Amino acid sequence: MLHRIDEIPLKAAQDTGRLFVTNFSAVGPDAQAALDRVGASVLVCMLTSREIELRYPEYGVWLESRSDETGNPRALWLPTPDGSVTSDEPVLKVVASVVAAMERGDSVLVHCGAGMARTAVIGILTMVAFGADPATAAVDFRAARPGGGPDGPPQEHQIARLRGAARQLQASS
After folding, report:
1. Mean pLDDT for the chain overall
2. CA-to-CA distance for 122 and 110, rounded, in angstroms?
3. What is the pTM of this model?
């Protein structure tokens, strides 16, 4: 069974890579196959190590083996508890890495457990970095990923706090 992978539209990304979002069931059994399915070369994981261990422990090994030290990682891992947030600085660093990868022409696949809330934080901030209106980015994300979007005030507040910094990312990368 192929699990759903959705493309998130980016306003000013005509000559860049593309942004995709999905759930762990689409990635966990065979991460490379999921990347190949959409032509992505960079994967962003928002799961905690416990979530990975419970369902697809071999995925954790794959994930750790794909980061590199050259400044162009093929896997980014930002463990974030379900329904919660991680500190602002690491979130902004991941968004900056996603923007940089896309500007190099790499497509990016972001996932959490369901591909809805934690994934939305990265997705919406990336949308803002590429020129989306911060006021409508969550609505546009939900239109592309039905049911997706921030999962309550902590994630909504984090997006609000970081949207100004996200707007500066494309110009500075």
Report:
1. 92
2. 8
3. 0.94
Q: Which amino acid is at 10?
A: L
CA 159 to chain centre: 13
Evaluate whether 8 touches 145 at the Cβ level (below 8 Å).
yes
- Flag whether pLDDT at 69 surpasses 90: no
CA dist 78 and 88 (Å) reads 11
Nearest residue to 158 (alpha-carbon basis) of 133, 131, 138 = 138
Question: Six-digit token pair at 45?
Answer: 């994981």
Q: Output b/e per residue, 150-166; b: 16+ Cβ within 10 A.
A: bbeeebbebbeebbebb
Q: Tell me the backbone φ, ψ of residue 43, rounded to 5 degrees.
A: -120, 140
Contact 29, 119 (CB under 8 A): no
Closest CA to 51 of 119, 123, 109, 112: 112
